[in-house]
Design a protein that fits this description.
The protein has 243 residues and is mainly α. It has one domain. It contains eleven helices and no strands. Helix 1 runs antiparallel to helix 3, helix 5 packs antiparallel against helix 6 and helix 6 runs antiparallel to helix 8. It is elongated, with a radius of gyration of 30 Å.
Length: 243
């Protein structure tokens, strides 16, 4: 999933857009239209996978705290929704660079400028989506840290990855963009690898912890109170009769 997102954002979008030169950006996109369309398709695929991941993480962390695990899932879904809005900006830019007859009222330079503005809008909306994604990772990191099965270091790294995305988003708004996410994402990768390689043991450990201990195995059976009282009365009567 990270490979699909990286290809869509860094190769198909950032790799074709020349900053500050709308004509060159439009020319490069038109010349590599298939690559640009493939990048958009890969981003839509990321959204579909994000929905599956959100559901899976709710199941994974339900044994820690069902309510907080649902919060993590909803944050992931909210991120996916905002990300989809961002991708529609790319499809709009592609339409502006096409041969639609309804765009004949605009000059070529105007179309190129509008297309680049749509691509820049994609980046802005994507930054907003990463705020939700960062919060999702922080919550997921907290759940992983509290889990008795997942190594706590993975929870810490996951939270650090979330903070990295938050910092990148806010610094982009402030006009001094950073790229911490390119380094802190290792937490996401390691958690995914751990879940894939330890999925069977994780499921067994989670199932064992979720099953309550049977009272019949932990305590001897108790007689009904009425039967116990009747037996005590009989014993007392026998003792008095022997005196």
């Amino acid at each position: 999933m990270s490979a699909l997102a990286g290809f869509g954002v860094f190769v198909a979008v950032d790799g074709l857009v020349t900053t500050g030169d709308a004509a060159a950006a439009a020319r490069d996109i038109v010349a590599s239209e298939s690559l640009f369309r493939l990048g958009i398709a890969s981003l839509f695929a990321v959204i579909a996978l994000d929905v599956v991941v959100a559901w899976g993480l709710v199941r994974v962390f339900a044994h820690v705290d069902a309510g907080i695990s649902r919060l993590a899932g909803w944050l992931r879904l909210a991120y996916s929704a905002v990300f989809m809005v961002a991708i529609t900006e790319l499809t709009g830019a592609l339409r502006l660079l096409g041969d639609g007859g309804d765009l004949s009222a605009f000059t070529t330079d105007q179309l190129h400028t509008q297309a680049v503005l749509r691509i820049e809008a994609f980046s802005s909306v994507f930054d907003a989506a990463l705020v939700l994604f960062g919060l999702h990772l922080i919550v997921a990191g907290y759940l992983a840290f509290r889990s008795a099965v997942i190594p706590k270091v993975l929870g810490v790294l996951l939270a650090v990855a979330g903070v990295g995305y938050l910092v990148d988003s806010f610094t982009a708004v402030l006009g001094s963009p950073t790229n911490l996410g390119a380094f802190t994402f290792i937490g996401e990768f390691l958690l995914a690898v751990w879940l894939v390689t330890r999925s069977r043991k994780f499921a067994e450990a989670t199932l064992a912890r979720s099953q309550p201990t049977s009272p019949a195995l932990s305590e001897p059976p108790r007689e009904p109170a009425a039967r116990t009282g009747a037996r005590q009365a009989t014993v007392a009567a026998r003792r008095s009769a022997t005196r």
